[in-house]
Design goal:
single chain, alpha/beta, Rossmann fold, 7-stranded mixed beta sheet, 36% helix, binds S-adenosylmethionine
Length: 195
């Protein structure tokens, strides 16, 4: 049968915790797969904030959410900005309220140009954004981070995220990994449940 994929596990952690009417954040919108999952969970009365530094990613994601989420698409606010500025873009009323914040690091998959694939998440801004996520999450809200050690720079970013999660005080949250240990260069999941 096999274990569920890393992406499916990230979705499961989110599905277990996000309810209709909740607030959630997709910190790396990309093609909008996670954004669509979040919109369908929060529903038309919820609020989903999605960040990406590429306009094309936001356009693709918007079309996907319109296609897949019906009236829940109205809950989505897409923001063309780096996730490290999450706190400035999220209205203060949502700080400490998000049920989930999702990161899927690396580059935009299936991008049609090499230039687009060169735009990757960077350790320093990722760590700033992860720290901001702790302010955004509500108690028992979940932070999911899919890391990609396989591409250039990805291993260093994965190590930095793992070290960040490992040093979190237990009063801040509980951190775990979900990883295929026979495949060290395969993507893996780091998740934090906020206390
Ligand atoms: C692996 S893709 C995300 C895939 C996406 N979650 C999906 O479901 O299709 C990574 C995305 O992160 C974006 N990105 C890179 N640096 C970023 C930053 N500083 N802030 C926000 N997004 C960033 C890239 O443009 C790319 O679209």
């Amino acid at each position: 049968m096999g274990f569920v994929s890393v992406l499916a596990m990230a979705h499961k952690l989110v599905q277990d915790r996000v309810q209709p009417g909740d607030c959630a954040v997709d910190a790396t919108v990309g093609n909008g797969i996670d954004t669509s999952v979040l919109c369908n969970l929060t529903g038309p009365k919820g609020a989903v904030f999605g960040f990406d530094v590429q306009e094309t990613a936001l356009q693709t994601a918007e079309q996907r959410v319109r296609r897949e989420c019906g009236s829940a698409a109205q809950s989505l606010k897409l923001i063309l900005a780096s996730h490290e500025h999450m706190l400035q873009h999220l209205p203060a009323v949502y700080h400490g309220q998000a049920a989930a914040v999702m990161f899927n690091l690396g580059y935009l998959p299936n991008a049609d140009s090499e230039e687009t694939q060169r735009i990757i998440t960077e350790p320093q801004s990722t760590l700033t954004a992860l720290q901001a996520s702790l302010t955004v999450l509500r108690p028992r809200g979940v932070l999911t981070i899919v890391v990609y050690p396989g591409h250039a720079g990805g291993a260093e970013e994965a190590e930095a995220v793992l070290a960040w999660a490992a040093q979190l005080p237990s009063a801040t949250g509980q951190a775990m990994t979900y990883r295929m240990v026979q495949k060290p260069s395969a993507p893996y999941l780091i998740a934090v449940e906020r206390r």
